[in-house]
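Hi V.,

Quick status before I head out on leave. The structure for the redesign project is tokenized and pasted below; the design run finished overnight.
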């Protein structure tokens, strides 16, 4: 049923430089996430290594590090179906994993039965056809340290998390001689998530700043009429402490405003229960996943510097909504069974990405919107021009964007850096594939580099240009040269047209970006 494959960082550099030959009976060799692939012909297979011929000649590729796709791929013993111990760091990660397992089972014709479920573990019995050997997936909830230690030891084959491994813990493992779990072959962003303040549909409040939400949660604001709403005592409802919404709310809302949750705040088991209360009570407010906010009114966030931030699919995919976050998959360096590798490959596939909305999350498929739908953001850019030079730059940007469409994929950088993070490396592949679709091949590609407002304008312009050039190189490389150099125009705009507030760390992070436009 399954064919041999794998995923590890050491093979990525090799596949990235290999070309596409014009050979008969070709197969595709690719990394487990499907983002880097090579076409060629298998000359021989000894059970462990492919003797592979491509445009650059013959090379040996360990079969355990890649997936082979095509009729000419050798059949290999599949092993037990989805037989692995898996770690999750929180309930949303577990929920996403279970949804993905069920979607994968439906795709492959497998049967999933939950043998047991406790507070910290769930056991799934997996069966297929008569030719498949049944397996068991044990999903174990654990702390970050325990989960990553199990991953490095090989006890756990992969793990899901709503937060990346901390630099402190990753550096500790590296110092002890362990692999760096932040490497592209080990860390994958599989989905995006976001929470939004939600009120009853009859509530007249139109938007809320994050500091105001924090003061409501702390019990400092007790009646809606204190902030221009109806004369009703505020009833704030949040899911329990062990939910990801509670953790994200504390990290992004309460801590930056140096406030603590009120003891009178109402707790419920999950976000669905919280949303049901808000849907029936005009005085209630909660935070719910932006993908599951049915029956309630989502409120835009009012940024401290003025602009509104609305939790649209586009804003969340562009990571410009303040309460958005990434969901991560980390893989073991141990040899995995083929069905487990197929599942990991499926998790990053376009097919799975398209289903994440049904799971309450957001996929990373590329979408585009015309410049006219970016009006609020561009109007804000004009209002924030403070010198003649900046106004001229902004006017030039507006003229360039006439009749252009912006892609949701947006590349971001650490302060003063031109290095792409793991998500950006995979986004370059998604963007290149989107740009090579028939309806897009004749459109001009515009890459605009932006920075935050920290530092000198001339240095910011230079840095944003270097970052845009880096993205151009990554997109061309991901296309194997099929996107010509002269089709991509690179421009630097420095700190103009911010999408976040430069007086907050989160806003500055949002502003360090490269946008992709088509015209």
């Amino acid at each position: 049923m399954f064919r041999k494959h794998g995923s590890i960082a050491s093979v990525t550099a090799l596949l990235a430089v290999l070309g596409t030959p014009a050979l008969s009976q070709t197969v595709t060799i690719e990394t487990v996430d499907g983002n880097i692939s090579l076409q060629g012909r298998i000359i021989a297979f000894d059970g462990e290594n492919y003797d592979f011929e491509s445009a650059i000649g013959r090379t040996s590729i360990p079969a355990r590090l890649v997936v082979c796709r095509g009729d000419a791929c050798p059949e290999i013993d599949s092993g037990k179906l989805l037989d692995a111990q898996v770690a999750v760091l929180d309930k949303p990660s577990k929920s996403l994993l279970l949804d993905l397992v069920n979607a994968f089972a439906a795709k492959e014709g497998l049967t999933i039965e939950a043998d047991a479920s406790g507070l910290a573990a769930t056991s799934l019995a997996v069966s297929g056809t008569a030719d498949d050997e049944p397996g068991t997936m044990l999903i174990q909830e654990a702390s970050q340290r325990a989960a990553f230690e199990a991953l490095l030891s090989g006890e756990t084959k992969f793990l899901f998390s709503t937060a990346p491994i901390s630099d402190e813990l990753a550096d500790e493992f590296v110092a002890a001689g362990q692999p760096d779990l932040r490497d592209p072959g080990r860390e994958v962003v599989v989905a995006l998530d976001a929470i939004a303040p939600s009120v009853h549909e009859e509530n007249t409040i139109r938007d809320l700043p994050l500091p105001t939400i924090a003061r409501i949660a702390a019990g400092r604001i007790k009646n809606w009429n204190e902030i221009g709403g109806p004369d009703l005592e505020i009833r704030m409802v949040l899911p329990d402490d062990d939910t990801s919404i509670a953790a994200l709310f504390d990290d992004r809302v309460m801590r930056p405003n140096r406030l603590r949750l009120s003891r009178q705040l109402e707790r419920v088991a999950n976000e669905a229960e919280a949303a049901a209360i808000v849907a029936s009570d005009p005085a209630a407010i909660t935070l719910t996943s932006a993908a599951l906010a049915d029956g309630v009114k989502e409120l835009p966030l009012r940024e401290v510097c003025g602009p509104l931030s609305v939790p649209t699919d586009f804003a969340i995919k562009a990571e410009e909504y303040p309460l958005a976050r990434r969901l991560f998959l980390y893989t073991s360096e141990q040899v995995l069974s083929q069905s487990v590798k197929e599942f990991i490959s499926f998790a990053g596939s376009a097919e799975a990405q398209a289903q994440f909305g049904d799971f309450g999350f957001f996929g990373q498929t590329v979408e585009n919107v015309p410049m006219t739908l970016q009006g609020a953001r561009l109007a804000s850019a004009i209002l924030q021009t403070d010198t003649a030079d900046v106004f001229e730059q902004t006017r030039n940007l507006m003229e360039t964007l006439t009749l252009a469409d912006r892609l949701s994929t947006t590349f971001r950088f650490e302060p003063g850096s031109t290095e792409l993070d793991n998500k950006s490396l995979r986004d370059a592949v998604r963007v290149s594939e989107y740009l090579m679709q028939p309806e897009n091949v004749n459109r001009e590609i515009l890459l605009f580099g932006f920075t935050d407002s920290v530092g000198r304008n001339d240095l910011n312009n230079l840095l944003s240009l270097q970052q845009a050039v880096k993205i151009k190189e990554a997109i061309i490389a991901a296309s194997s040269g099929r996107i010509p150099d002269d089709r991509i125009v690179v421009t630097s705009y420095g700190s103009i047209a911010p999408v976040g507030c430069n007086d907050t760390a989160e806003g500055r992070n949002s502003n360090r970006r490269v946008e992709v436009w088509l015209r």
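Above is the designed sequence. The longest strand covers residues 187-199.

G. will cover questions while I'm gone.

Best,
W.
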